[in-house]
């Protein structure tokens, strides 16, 4: 198979960045895409990923760099000025700067049921093509994972990446396990390829891209340096992790609480790994003070649904997460800051 | 062979069909594993640590599919792993190990013993920063501890070099003039985990031909006609001669490496000189920089050359012995050299390489300025722009501007007015006290515990704040918080390295509302012993004014109780007033699910794979509560989140004992949905089934007397083991007909331990 690189930057690279969370298979997708480029199309290529530790639900950023067969790719460092950004999990658009450094005329691909114009509204990025694919729905339909549906869509928007190359790698990678799995994944790939909706937001901007100064991703500068970092790496601020927002760990479902059928047994609270349940003390009917469940602090909820499994009534139910539901129904923990 | 000589000039055999090569896209760890499998080492002794762990994982996976015969021995810590390797090397076969960072430092004590005893092997050091604070990412601070171990050190800048160096390392190690263990070092994550285009021999026979049969050592442990004493007691005047032999062998290793590299070039087409130089011939300024960052720097050189600036890069293929003449030849004409180091030798005005380069150049009276910069610590990325910035420093010096001879590159001062994100108010006494009561019956001596319902306990403040980064459905936190519901008043916690530690303290955030301390993996029990004893001593001296004494609790995973078993038993022997709470998720989950000694037989982990040649873990799970009970501490218990009242009651008792008598230990089985391969919401039920099938009985041992606190048999609630095993992806293969014998072995072991426990429950003298 032969194909030309869709585009190259000053260094001679075509670069892709994947924004995902642990557990969605972005690592495997990146590896398969890089293999397709190197082993099937004869390009030079590298794949690397940055993640904290081996945790599900935490942000993962993967970098793929292609070059012509004889052009060296020597350094291993994150892709800062990608031609394509693939966002595997829509919630990351809020929590991460996904479009940082994305080149004018490039492609922003998002796993979403929304239309490209809506993604433009959310991200403010309109310097190239915006592509949307409902990879989650495809994966649910085919009982596969979003990564392969995203690969299909990526292949389409990469303009020059022959889908056969990626499909051959999928066959080789998953074929070792079982044939039915391969078939489902190939269908997933094709669906991603076919169902992606692409809109060119700035044809004019794309033409001017030569003149435009490419934005560079902000390599996050820490606010704590050698003058103000407390000695010995100590953190003298107890419980300050309450500032963190874990909602991007959810994968489309969350517990929905109907207080009217709650018996305040605290089974949910006891099994919750993320300390999401908020209680208040109130006088009961007999005049004694009791604990009452007030609600869920969705900022910390990762959507594991253990609380739903533990609930002896139907007060807690699993629900598909609608846009804005968590924000609107969140009961904030009444934290007292020092 | 001189520097820069090109491969094309060599008389090459690489076109011979035996040496056919395949192109692939692979990471450094994959290439290390592939080389090892093709060599078909006799044995690998190892202990998992990020980022080197994958080597053992890949080898285990290959072994499960019958692709090599290497005996893989999972040690109980790196010190033991090094001991296993030492013994195996002494016993005459080919031996491999892989480690990183603290793991390397933990085995450091063994390394000079092995080089002094002249036992060859190969150790892949996948370089990573040394704690503390804990950081799992790449730098060279572990490598710098290797410099004086007496092991030759080969460096690999790319996955390709990882493969090539692994093949060459063995030949250098086994050469009769050398007979030394050899380190192959490459960058954690940058090289170990990134995939790059590589070539490797398609036929294992090519590798076997290159490394040859195992060279016979001077002595053979199993030659019964010639018994030999290995490792004598040797004083003056003999010792210095052993060391001189070692010194000669080390220098000889440099020459042997050159010979081996030439031989390897002939079959592979890839030649490795002592140094890797890039556009250095006419350079005015140069960077000396190790491993992957050298590759990045080459891009910066090209950019500077395009502007007419004559820049170059020097990197090392062999660091020990230090190729002094090659360095002199390569750098003598350069005006300004900047040695960039991913490690510091604190207080030495530049790390080791700076001084070695400087002294090499001084010996030939080179008129060259040598600058030194520490960069990229703890995995801080190194971009071409960073290399350019370092070259700019060279240019400044070249122009005669004053620049510091030694400094750090890439640090910021920070605004003193800015603090870490604001934390919460300390817990008030009444938020954590007055909920659970423990009294002692004066007549019977029995502890009577009163626990309110869970609902009332929601008023008790949690010692953890939300916002930790554990996986969805993690069983650790319900276990810890349920346990802490039984603990009254102030607590001081120590977390051993593991999931709970990493996810609750990602800088600059902490989820701990109480005072927390972490030292390292295996040393928590010792560290907390020190904290406890200092508390009592400072209190005795009147230095601490405190109303109520805190309770000291160590939280550890089952991994921490493997590598830290000695430390825990030491604390138990000394009977300090503290509690050890072990959350057992049946594996080293924080490092990516490797087997622990608590993993049940047949269960699948990343180092106990399932395939035609292997069905999961090969040996039974460790019975840690019984080990701790045998240490005769006042109180030992087990618990799970699925039986909360039981666990809370035991926590209250543990606190009473840790306040009045001494050490308490408890083990809580906690679900790990990611690595047990269960749905995120199933943890509570799955650990409940582990109890009901009698795999994980709920009991306590109080002053040596065993009491089962929930007997599923007596209640008619017992389920067969398969009811538990079939719920987890890591164990359901045990229910397949071909694994019947394994399943029966597991059931028999569970039954045997349960019957013994019942007997103990029934007879207080057992």
Automatic annotation (TrEMBL), chain A:
NCBIfam families: PorC_KorC (TIGR02175). The keyword Transmembrane helix does not apply. This is Pyruvate ferredoxin oxidoreductase subunit gamma/delta. It comes from the Bacteria. Pfam families: Fer4_7, POR. Keywords: Iron, Iron-sulfur, Metal-binding, Oxidoreductase, Pyruvate. One of its GO terms (molecular function) is metal ion binding. Residues 253-282, 292-321 form the 4Fe-4S ferredoxin-type domain. The keyword Iron applies.
From TrEMBL, chain B:
Residues 283-386 form the Pyruvate:ferredoxin oxidoreductase core domain. The keyword Magnesium does not apply. Residues 549-662 form the Thiamine pyrophosphate enzyme TPP-binding domain. InterPro entries: PFOR_II, Pyruvate:ferred/Flavod_OxRd, Pyrv_Fd/Flavodoxin_OxRdtase_N, THDP-binding, TPP_enzyme_TPP-bd, Transketo_C/PFOR_II. It comes from the Bacteria. Keywords: 4Fe-4S, Electron transport, Iron, Iron-sulfur, Metal-binding, Oxidoreductase, Transport. Residues 35-260 form the Pyruvate flavodoxin/ferredoxin oxidoreductase pyrimidine binding domain. One of its GO terms (molecular function) is 4 iron, 4 sulfur cluster binding. The keyword Signal does not apply. SUPFAM superfamilies: Thiamin diphosphate-binding fold (THDP-binding), TK C-terminal domain-like. GO terms for biological process: response to oxidative stress. PANTHER family: PYRUVATE-FLAVODOXIN OXIDOREDUCTASE-RELATED. Belongs to the pyruvate:ferredoxin/flavodoxin oxidoreductase family. This is Pyruvate ferredoxin oxidoreductase alpha subunit. It comes from Alicyclobacillus cellulosilyticus.
